[in-house]
Structure formats: structure tokens, C-alpha cells
Amino acid sequence: MHDYWAESLFSGEPYFEKGVLSYFDGRVVTICGFPLRGCPPIENGDLHGLIHSWIRKNGVEAILVVGPKRLDLRCLRRYGFRRTHSAGGRDTSCELLIDCTDAPNTILDHTFYRRSVKTGLNSRVKCGSIVSVEYLKLIELFFDQNDLTDYLAQLICVLPVLLRSRRVWLIEARKNGRLCGFATLHKAFSDIAVGLFLAHDRRTSYVSDFLYGEALMQANKLGVHYVNVGASPSFGLYSFKRKWGGEPLVPPYFLVQWTRGRLVRRTYASWCPRVIRL
């Protein structure tokens, strides 16, 4: 379910070789072990062959593999690599997709959405406009109230680009004219849109439910069947997405990173945080 247009902002230039999607930022290679839909599973031998091909190229200091199974890369020790990170395998790491085929009929009758509307929330949808002070204040408030995860560290570096892009829809939640939350939606595939970011002020009741309902209805207008709401950093967020009908159409991911050279001393979430040494 990789959205390569948005992912390239985090992980580098995208490549597609021998059925495998990869990204390279000049130092780190990120390899997706999930096959494209409708394609056969990617075998370990294919991944090992691609990894060795990347290693032979100049400048590769780290190999990051994300896929549906744990990959043994101890063979990289002879090239001076060592394992620096390993994670995944939990249900919360599944990318969840929500069916929006029958929206808005199902959404308008959804218990959580109807409850949010009763609080006086209303929406506005736009894209490609100037980033107003309302957005800047709300984003800073959101980051101030949340722990800085790897994903958020990456996201804050590229968020201005996403907010100004004409390919990204902004779904606003307003109450009495005040912006109290927004969600970003990108139509990455012909039948799947991707939710990239959601922020709210944490004081307005049910704003997340409202934004989910509005985003699903907007996705339906864009002609897609599903919205990918991504993996979840916590079980609470995972449960919230499941409450809205999120289904794991791909298995949980496993992540492993092997590194050599200067990057062994410090781990960065991606290219953007690395440049500013975050």
C-alpha cells in the first residue's frame, strides 16, 4: 500500500526493480518486501539479490527492509554492516483500510459521526491553498501535546509541501468558525486514497470521529473504494481505526535495518530528520 509519491518525500527516489519497490536517499536504501497487488509474494532470494546489488553501488551505508516476514541479513556482516534496528510483527503495525464504497449513506447514519455533528462541528474541503496561521498554530499545538515519534519527526519536515500540494485534500473541522482539526487525504491509487496526517486541538469533543466521517465521504467523491488510514503507534489508535471499520488487508510488517560507516553511531528516521540531525 505504499504511496510512492508521498513516501519519496521521506525515503528518497523510488525505484522498481524485479517486482520490488525501493527508495534511495543517497545513503540509505529502503526496500519494500510487500508485492504489488495481484503479484506473487516476493521471495527471500529475490530480496537478497536486490540487496547485494544495492551494496555494490557507491554510497550505500544502510539497508532498511520492511516486509511481511522477518528477514535474516547476517550475510551483510562480511560487508561491514551490523544490525542497528529491528521491529514489527504486532497487529498495530498493520495498515488498516476502511471501505467507503457506500459513503455518504453509511457515514451519515454512523453513530460516532452523528454524535460529532450534534456538537456543532462543520466541515470545509480544499487543496493547494496558502497555509494559514490557523494551520500553523494547530500543528504546533498538536506536536506540543504529543510525543515525537519517528513518523511525526519525518512528517513535520515535509508537512508544508503536503499542505500546499494540489494532490492533497484538506478536510477541515470547524466549530463556530474556528479551526479545531484537519485531516489530509491523497488519492494515491485508482481505488485507494491514503490518509497522511490528522491533527486536532484535543479540547473539541468528537473531532476525530467527525474528520474520519468527512474524509470517507470526500474519498467517495474522489471515486475510490477504500481509505488507507495506516499503521498505528498505539493500541488505542489501532482500536479507534478498527471502530471505524478498518480492516488489515495486508499482514503486519517486520522491519530490520543493517548499517555501516558513520550512520552506525546514530539512527535517524529518514533523510529529512538526518539532514537537521534530529
List keywords for this structure.
Aminopeptidase, 7-stranded mixed β-sheet, 6-stranded mixed β-sheet, 2 domains, alpha+beta
Secondary-structure map with pairings?
Layout: H1 4-11, E1 13-17, E2 20-24, E3 28-32, H2 44-55, E4 62-67, E5 82-88, E6 96-99, H3 105-108, H4 111-117, E7 121-126, H5 133-144, H6 150-164, E8 168-175, E9 178-186, E10 192-200, H7 207-221, E11 226-230, H8 235-243, E12 247-248, E13 254-259, H9 271-275
Characterization of the model:
- With 278 residues, this protein is an alpha+beta fold.
- The chain folds into 2 domains: 4-89 and 253-275, Aminopeptidase, CATH 3.40.630; 96-248, Gcn5-related N-acetyltransferase (GNAT) (Aminopeptidase, 3-Layer(aba) Sandwich), CATH 3.40.630.
- Helix content is 31%, strand content 28%.
- The protein is built from 9 helices and 13 strands.
- Strand 3 (28-32), helix 2 and strand 4 form a beta-alpha-beta unit.
- Helix 4 (111-117) packs across helix 7 (207-221).
- Residue runs with pLDDT of under 50 for 5 or more positions: none
The top level CATH class name of the largest domain = Alpha Beta
Helix content: 25-40%
State which percent range the strand residues make up.
25-35%
Along the chain, the helix and strand elements come as HEEEHEEEHHEHHEEEHEHEEH
Let me know the number of strands.
Answer: 13
The average pLDDT score comes to 94
Per CATH, the architecture of the largest domain is: 3-Layer(aba) Sandwich
